[in-house]
Design goal:
single chain, six-stranded mixed sheet, about 650 residues, alpha/beta, 14 helices, Molybdopterin biosynthesis moea protein, domain 2, Molybdenum Cofactor Biosythetic Enzyme, Chain A
Length: about 650
């Protein structure tokens, strides 16, 4: 069988497409300013703006349109909107739609040039030249493009069709343009390397061995899951010199602390009332008292000292005034006199004698200044975020996470939304993996689908390696003639295949490889193409590895729970099988496990609602009612 090389263009196309797929999942902030007096007056409906927004969402699914407005054809109004949005840094890119023609009211380019600091003539030229290729009437469109502070402003025509076409002409350059404007130097360098790599791209060294020439026996030893985990953990070692970064406390959830957190100030920083009641002097005992003032939480402490015979009405959390040494709750008092309109208390009676310190939280009673509150290498939970906010932290240093890219392989795969031809299926693995990783707090990028040809696999992997520390690939790891990942990694990237066969079901052909790319250590997980195999191996290998490399001191692998089986479990295979189960907890705090049904590795439904993996040895039957240990990886069902 001869492969037609003409169908596999080994030029820059693979690199460009792969990089574009990575880039489009970066989060940008877009603005849309529709310029139309008739739409502003609601005589006509704005069609182009919403259509452009939909196009942006489809092209950049992780980005947001953070600004949308309609303005009349007035130069000052247009300029004012562009200036305000740019100066407030609400958007990375603003598209104006409309007002670019020859009519007297078409003043969008003039308004744009009045506010920009720099012109972007290349973008203008791209829009005009590409539009002229579509229609000669584009010569009547006047467009301005430029930069104000850190915001890129581009003029589009008011026609819906023309606006969408113009977006298509420049969308591939937007992310890099924003990187340059905002001086995201690391990503700029990555893109420059990718461009250089385009020029240096060579064909893969791998040749497809078809028919009788293909391998019939794997050269890799079969190892246990435990050994595979040990290899991964040994290569992705705990490193106290890991890179760190500072993030906002509001963005720190599920991150790992890179520093010990100590209290700067005592908590509370003042004596605080525990109850709603009255600040009193205990030596006064019981009896009538004059109500001097009122203190609510957040009020400045009373400047005057409380004297004998006086009380101050006080709310929970309020600062106890000077001179007071106890708080008496409302329930232990009686109102004796009030103002004429009844709004103010004048005299109250203390019915129960207070004791010194009663219902007062002393300074530092919760946390003393300088106390170590949170230890580094612990994962930040919602409670941690609350503690950090209480201590006054707005930013915190965390372990820098590895960047993760996901590749799918296979000629048969199509993205969701694409029309399927005979023999094709939709790529469910990638969406499942992206979501699974997200559920554990990890973001990953879509690095596209590599077709079953060495050049395509090489180019897609190359582009993914430029952007990411860890690559997760699905498919292409078995014994078929078009399962090319291992060969490409070895021959084109000089990778070391650490293991390629694991004694488990599902997941036997799982691959773990290490390599050095552009001077940086990279890790590749080659997961099986079957959907369930992909999920199970992610839970057993990928997620623990990510937590390990992130220095999560709290992660002890998935806990084992003793559960009572509600189904008869049979494993007829010689390999140990990870059966997907639902674990329930009853009112008596006992655990029970229910199989999710048919355990075939292509049946993704067996993972739906599953929160446990039951390891069943080969050639084993377990009867219903027996108690076994199950790995819990999700929330318990009730």
């Amino acid at each position: 069988m001869q492969i037609k090389q003409t169908q596999w263009h080994t030029s820059e196309r693979y690199i460009r497409n792969a990089i574009r797929k990575i880039r489009k999942h970066m989060a940008l902030r877009f603005g849309i300013l529709t310029v139309s007096t008739t739409c502003f007056m609601k005589v006509k409906e704005d069609v182009a703006g919403p259509k452009l927004e939909a196009e942006i969402s489809e092209t950049f699914p992780d980005s947001k349109v953070t600004f949308k407005r309609i303005v009349s054809d007035d130069e000052q109004s247009i300029a004012e909107e562009l200036k305000n949005v740019s100066d407030a840094d609400l958007c990375d890119v603003i598209f104006t739609v409309g007002g670019t023609g020859f009519a007297p009211s078409d003043v969008t380019p003039e308004a744009t040039r009045a506010v920009i600091d720099k012109e972007a003539l290349g973008l203008e030229l791209a829009l005009i030249s590409r539009s002229l290729a579509m229609t000669e009437m584009a010569m009547l469109s006047r467009l301005a493009c430029g930069i104000r502070k850190k915001t890129i402003i581009l003029n589009f025509p008011g026609s819906t069709k023309a606006a969408i076409e113009c977006f298509g002409f420049i969308k591939s350059s937007l992310v890099h343009a924003v990187e340059l404007v905002r001086q995201r130097n690391e990503r700029v360098a990555d893109t420059h390397r990718a461009i250089q790599q385009n020029n240096e791209f060579t064909e893969s060294k791998v040749k497809i061995q078809v028919g009788a020439l293909r391998h019939r026996k794997s050269p890799y030893d079969m190892i246990s899951v435990q050994v595979a985990q040990d290899i991964i953990f040994g290569k992705m070692k705990f490193c106290e010199n890991a890179e760190t970064e500072v993030v906002s406390v509001t963005q720190a959830l599920e991150r790992v602390l890179a520093e010990d957190i100590s209290a700067i100030d005592p908590i509370p920083p003042f004596p605080a009332s525990i109850k709603d009641g009255y600040a009193v002097i205990t030596s006064d005992g019981v009896g009538q008292r004059a109500v001097k003032a009122a203190m609510a939480a957040g009020d400045e402490p009373a400047k005057s000292v409380l004297h004998s015979g006086e009380v101050i009405r006080i709310s929970t959390g309020a600062a106890v005034p000077a001179g007071a040494d106890a708080v008496v709750q409302i329930e232990d008092t009686t109102l004796i006199a009030a103002s004429e309109n009844g709004s103010e208390e004048k005299i109250i009676k203390i019915n129960v004698a207070p004791t010194v310190g009663q219902d007062i939280r002393p300074i530092g009673s919760d946390i003393h200044a300088g106390t170590l509150v949170l230890k580094k290498y612990n994962r930040i939970t919602a409670a941690y975020v609350g503690v950090l906010a209480t201590l006054g932290f707005t930013k915190v240093r965390v372990i820098k996470r590895p960047t993760i890219g996901i590749i799918s392989t296979g000629n048969e795969l199509r993205n969701a939304g694409e029309t399927l031809k005979p023999g094709e299926i939709r790529d469910s693995n990638k969406v499942t993996l992206l979501t699974l990783l997200k559920s554990f707090g990890y973001d990953a990028g879509d690095c596209g689908i590599a077709r079953d040809h060495p050049n395509a696999v090489k180019a897609t992997v190359e582009a993914a390696l430029i952007q990411n520390d860890i690559i997760i690939s699905t498919g292409g790891v078995s014994m078929g003639e078009y399962d090319l990942l291992k060969q490409v990694l070895i021959e084109d990237f000089h990778a070391t295949i650490e293991f390629a066969r694991v004694n488990m079901k599902p997941g036997k052909p799982t691959v773990f490889a290490t390599l050095t790319h552009q001077g940086k250590k990279k890790y590749v997980f080659g997961l099986p193409g079957n959907p369930v195999s992909c999920c199970v191996t992610s839970l057993l290998f990928v997620i623990p590895a990510l937590k390990r490399i992130e220095l999560d001191a709290s992660f002890k692998f998935w806990p084992l729970l003793p559960v009572k089986l509600e189904n008869r479990i049979v494993n007829n295979d010689i390999r140990p099988e990870y059966v997907r189960v639902n674990i329930f907890q009853n009112t008596s705090l006992e655990f029970r496990a229910v199989s999710t049904g048919n355990q075939i590795s292509s049946r993704l439904n067996s993972m739906v609602d599953a929160n446990g993996l039951l390891l069943v040895p080969g050639k084993t039957t377990w009867e219903a009612g027996s108690v076994r240990a199950v790995h819990l990886f999700g929330q318990l069902h009730t």
